Amino acid sequence: MDREETVLVIDTDGSAVKIAWPAPDADRPEVLSRAIGGGRTRMLRCGKGILGFCDESGAASGQPANPFATKAFDEQGIELPAPLYGPVVFARNPSKGSIVKALTDAQAANLLAVTGARLA
């Protein structure tokens, strides 16, 4: 049986959920939009092999800051130009090509450990 392809969503209260990551030709933009609460999606590199996606206008739309997701970037020594607001989706940055991939189990576990987030 194949393992379900998932990405990790870390919310502002430190709760985290794994959500199904559809095939590249499916509705990935819709999945991202729903997970971050709507708005325009902003992509940020979070160290080697990880991407973070958040609402570009999260602060303006009244979403609270996300100190948990911010820790993932801090751990990699990445200074963000502005705080992260609202839920953040973490996915795997492809080493070749441009198709964003699901996280490996090890990557998801590391993100949970580094951020202090907990699976709901």
Automatic annotation (TrEMBL):
Domain of life: Bacteria
UniProt-recorded name of the protein: Uncharacterized protein
Organism of provenance: Nakamurella panacisegetis
Lineage: Bacteria, Bacillati, Actinomycetota, Actinomycetes, Nakamurellales
